[in-house]
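User: Structure please.
Assistant: Input sequence and predicted structure:
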Amino acid sequence: MAGWQPGKWRKRSTKRGFARASMTNAGAGVLILLLAACGGSPSYEQPAAAPAMSPAAQVGERIFSDTSLSGSRGQACSICHDPANAHAPGNALAAQLGGPNRNLQGVRQAPGIRYLRFNTAFFFDSEGTPTGGFFWDGRASSLQVQAAEPFLNPFEMAMPSKAAVVQRLSQATYTTEFRSVFGSNIFADVDLAYDRMTFALAQYQKEDAEFAEFSSKYDAFLRGQATLAAQELRGLALFNDPNKGNCAACHPSAKGADGSLPLFTDFTYDNLGVPRNPDLQANADPTYFDLGLCARPDGSLSTRTDLCGAFKVPSLRNVGLRHTFFHNGQFKTLKDALTFYVQRDTNPEKFYPTVGGVVQKFNDLPPQYHPNVNRTEAPYNRNPGDVPALTDAEIDDLVVFLNTLSDGFVP
């Protein structure tokens, strides 16, 4: 949800003025107008009738589901980003299995990849807020750059080299189509062929309407084509209320000034102090810590220790279809994840181990980085014994609302 570190990097304050309205059915029409009028949310063009995909994107679709391009011959992009589950994992593993024999566990959960076509390369905005970038740590600058990594990652598709990938690609069932799009001699240049392969994957994600359907019940509600039930409206009010869920501070829910629909992410980063997940094999080593933004493989942010523990704010679209939550897959239900948000500081013993009578709060970060954890904004601005920002019934309302963000709603 929301987060900033005073004197270091901060969330954009312009994203905190969100509409409040009576959450009765009678007030639904007013709420639509208020949401449409809210400013401060990013603006995006909405898809019209989906045109036919380009030849490059059509080839990219074939690559996306091609298991032959992996060391095990059983892994493909579509395995971790299942189209049947909104292009996110269809299981509750803390991290997906890959490698030459598909028995090596990754260190982070595979994120959903819908709506990423609206993302940007990583940058620091005028207030110093880290924004954009692909992967949990933002290290890739584009969909194409992101697509290049899994094939060579030893915990994912585990191919030994670009040349090995291109060799498999040259023997694929769609090789003729690949040559037709990129040239009859394309496989003579390994680097160029690999580049065109990742370009095709990026074009597929940009052009296939399934990756940005805007077809949820909430989208229909904003268009005036559906009515939210009373509990869903209550959940929306809690989502927007800066003193309650405060979710909209990082996951904008309002239409853009041009009427475009919200993406439910501002593409920034936050440090939530998520508990250590024992289901991750990497965590068997007590000295191992996933430090996120400051620990990119290229070391580009290694001096920014204030960013250690920060991870990408994902879109909440289709969050109701997820089976695991947060970068380390610690929580398995949406209600458990929301309960952590609002009781992390009031009842930390529920989420962290206790040693010698002392709760080991923020146990997935070395102590020197504990000050980086967001503890200033609602719902994190609480202390042990305080009343949580949301009651159990209000969490249920919020869960019901979040389920309206799933694509595929039929009025």
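Strands lie at 97-98, 104-105, 123-124, 130-131, 269-270, 311-312, 354-355, 358-359.
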